[in-house]
Amino acid sequence: MKTIYLIGFMGSGKSTVGKMLGEQLGIPFLDTDQMVESEYGPISAIFRDKGEKAFRTYETEMLKRIPDNNHIVSTGGGIVEQEQNIAFMNGNGIIFHLNASMNEIASRLGNDPNRPLWGTNYAERVRLYNRRKELYIAAADVTILTDGKTAQNITEEISSQLR
Ligand code: S3P
């Protein structure tokens, strides 16, 4: 099976669903954020000490390490900020976009200090959300609306699309 990439805004459930999908299909699950952290340390420290640009370089490096078959991959919300990442994922596998509403995201994330780009200003959060949403939709093979659904529901929806 081709590698499956999950994309979507911070807090859209990519890691939870990815893990579940990997277990259900019996294939390995990888998370690009976790890969960056195990190699370079906490994301918040990378942003603080080296800046977003360094983080984006590490993120792309990890993405490109993942084989083009038999993996489920949860990506960071900013993976679509670089065209080369989108081209890589499109060339190597199938992209599913988990599309959660701004309200749902805001209530899930609260004021999470471990997500440097979530910040504190509501207007900026909305601006980022709206800009990213267009990028996710354009990049994805399939967009799944997630509001009101459990991780199990979403996992089943992806599985049935794959069949
Ligand atoms: C980011 C999202 C985060 C993480 C980093 C940057 C973003 O991942 O990669 O903080 O730019 O949206 P999650 O989507 O898993 O929170």
UniProtKB/TrEMBL annotation:
Enzyme Commission number: 2.7.1.71
GO cellular component terms attached to this protein's record: cytosol
Coiled coil segments of this chain: none
UniProt pathway: Metabolic intermediate biosynthesis; chorismate biosynthesis; chorismate from D-erythrose 4-phosphate and phosphoenolpyruvate: step 5/7
Compartmental location: Cytoplasm
Protein task: Catalyzes the specific phosphorylation of the 3-hydroxyl group of shikimic acid using ATP as a cosubstrate.
Assembly behavior: Monomer.
This protein's name: Shikimate kinase
Species whose genome carries this gene: Lentibacillus cibarius
Lineage of source species: Bacteria, Bacillati, Bacillota, Bacilli, Bacillales
